[in-house]
Amino acid sequence: MKKAAVSTVLSLTLASLGAIGVPAGSALAAGPMYSGQCPTGKTYYEVVSKTSSWVTLAGPYHYINKSRTLSGTHTFKIDKGGTKSASTSVGAESQAGALIAQAKVSVSATISKSVSWSTSMSVTMKVPPGKTVYASYGTNQYRITFRKFEYAGNCTKFDRGRVTLTAPSSTGWKTW
Prior knowledge:
Layout: H1 3-17, E1 44-64, E2 72-78, E3 82-85, E4 87-88, H2 96-106, E5 114-117, E6 121-127, E7 132-151, E8 157-175
Antiparallel strand pairs: 1-7, 2-6, 3-5, 4-8, 7-8
């Protein structure tokens, strides 16, 4: 039986019998021991913080229903297109693909390297009498900070700094 498996079995057996306590800092309390080599020489990323915000790509637009008694509808339409791309902090441009892949798993599957929108996007809204409605076309944008680290031969993590990824998500209309 491997060393890791023996440690796990021993820890579970002793804990379940209640024969002895397992000190918090002991190898048994830490779980199975890693008996192989740590994956050195490779950079890893883990999410430290994340925020999201609305980024307007077209608009905002507004419409005032000047009628005092009749409700109406209004269609907002954009006749242009474009692309919103992801960006990284200085020096991390070559890592953008790996960061986006990690962000899709850790934050949101809708995060992408870029989002595009085409001409003739529209939304129709009901407008109560005497009221104003607003619309903007945009994307939910994530700002994610990653901890960049490597493993040493003894499986200790060495911090290699922070990297920030700003990446768009799905596009659509925001109305209010």
